[in-house]
Amino acid sequence: MSRPETEAALAEMIAGANAPFHIRGGGTRGIGAPVAGALLETSALRGVTLYEPGALTLVVKAGTPVAEIEETLAAEGQRLAFEPMDHRGLLGTEGTPTIGGVVAANASGPRRIQAGACRDFMLGVRFVDGMGQILKNGGRVMKNVTGYDLVKLMTGSWGTLGVLTEVSLKVLPKPETMATLRLRGLATGDAVTAMARALGSPYEITGAAHLPSAPEGAETLLRIEGFEQSVTYRADALRGLFAGMEVEVDRDPDTVAQTWAEIRDVAPMQGATGDVWRISCKPSDAPALTHAMGASDLVMDWGGGLVWALVEEGTDLRSRLGTFDGHATLVRGSEALRRSLPVFQPEPAPLATLSAGLRARFDPRGFLNPGLLA
Questions:
Q1: What backbone torsions phi and psi does residue 24 show, to the nearest 5 degrees?
Q2: pTM (2 d.p.)
């Protein structure tokens, strides 16, 4: 395993390579097809380069642990608003989540429905491409990549276009308080309708999830955050919106934070036997899709637009669902399964051609995580 300690050392290593690399940050997100290559880890590239709380701007090296960043931000009453998922519990991995891994996966949690994804908070990147060239956003770039939005390209590219060395992010203030409303006993279709109703209200919902197999029966969860008086008003208004339903309100910040961390990290499926799929779809399609899944457990987030499904080992859930407006990703499965079917949703031919062209431009030798997105 190689762990370069500087961007220059990383660039030199890639430039002089004669075989592929398996790129990873802290080793916590083992998603994708198995990659054959020498392990190259970026966790030694760590540290805050620039933090300006007044400008809500953070510049940090890619190998910096997410926990370290969150601690730095919390000291100034700020946070990463896109709420990045920690995959360790779900995947049974160890290591330490890094900000580079978050960006490479575009990892975004329940607040995406209100604040946006990781990609929406990215201000800039520095990375080393497959030829060992150091490229950056907003400054001098190589002629053959001029015109590309490097931030958008690198966020969610899973290390197949370049190895991140530094990222610039917009951060936001932490709210004064928060609350969770629990609606009990709703069937999946009714839960999606209720979440849509709440999200369409003026009460600024920052989380909308449904747990059909919760220990005390099906729960539909709505989160609100902000100033104390505002949260109180909106909680009362939402109770009125769902008059006639069984509604509980949790105002304890610690338990609210724990509840949404468990949704973010798909806690109900941690340690459970079976494969885990992540399905992105139109919320209105979620009831029919979940019915077709034959899953032993489900976690629905983003108002029904994100579905986590626990299914029997070896299940090709994509085939079971057929064609739908969205995509299905195998997040947890055996190595044999990840070799036998596409882990990520196959792209339509025109998009696949564009993707192949980008990889040929940024990694012409095919040395960066080859085959991971297959």
A1: -150, 160
A2: 0.94
